[in-house]
Automatic annotation (TrEMBL):
GO MF terms held by the record: hydrolase activity
SUPFAM superfamilies membership: alpha/beta-Hydrolases (SSF53474)
InterPro entries xref list: AB_hydrolase_3, AB_hydrolase_fold, Carboxylest/Gibb_receptor, Lipase_GDXG_put_SER_AS
Alpha/beta hydrolase fold-3 domain: residues covered: 74-293
Pfam families: Abhydrolase_3 (PF07859)
The protein, known as: Alpha/beta hydrolase fold-3 domain-containing protein
Domain of life of the organism encoding this protein: Eukaryota
Active site, renumbered: S161
Coiled-coil region(s): none
Amino acid sequence: MDPDAQLHYEFPGSFRYYKSGRVERLDGTEVVPTGTDPTTGVISKEVTINQSTGLSARLYLPNGIKSDKKLPILLFIHGGAFIIHTAGSPAYHRYCNLLSANAKSVVVSVSYRLAPEHRVPVAYDDTWEALNWIVLNCKSGPEPWLAEHGDLARIFLAGDSAGGNIAHHIAVRFGEEGLDGCSKLKGVMLLNPYFWGKDPIGNEKTNPGLQPWMEETWSFICGGKYDMNHQFVHPMGSPELFTKLGCERVLVTVAELDLFAERGRVYADTLKKSGWGGEVALHETPGEDHVYFLTKFDGEKALKEMEAMVAFINRD
């Protein structure tokens, strides 16, 4: 049989990878243009961070901001199992417009390189480079939105699903290495984060096919380099690293019907018990599934979660 037609791995409805190495993305490929959002008035634009790798991001600036007004900076990291979506995906573009408008913040949504062409830890390295770029431009430009409006004392990370996973690891790396000009991240928001482990817990045990599929998926994402108990996917197994989180506070959100919900709760509990000196908050949404807020963004529950995020950003 033609290897170009033989499936090696499939993420149903989203992604197919063939034995020939051919990649077929069924979701997350649509890109919407930047500009002025008619609903929020937020202005967005595309920027290149690294020409050689193609690393890029979208910047979002609230409407009507005075030239000397400093704003919180939110580095947003999209989800998609490390294999689909970009900052230009319709759901993420809309969500970042809403975040920028509601939190009155400069949002930088990074398009990190995706697996399998660029397997983990490339996504971590790209996001770290984006954070470096933010800090440098806040200090001396040339990006005017950051130079004029970015507040280095109020940098936040936020990510959903795989993006939440990435946000955690960037916060740990910041705590280990630091960045010149930025002493500490203000906060990190992990929205329905993608964490797992070798041994099923809680409701995961009721679905016998779930664990093998999660193991296959993670192996595909990282090229088989890291097992299911590696800190990249199972940070709760390395609680000593939690003490290195380079931020003041963490917000974890979970959705009741989400297969990752158990792990999100354990993450928050592990962080509270780790000896880390910051604040931990857990926001739970009943009756909803994984990243529901991307599609039900104007629903009561999504608005309540957005309120929690805005309060987390702007409380001081």
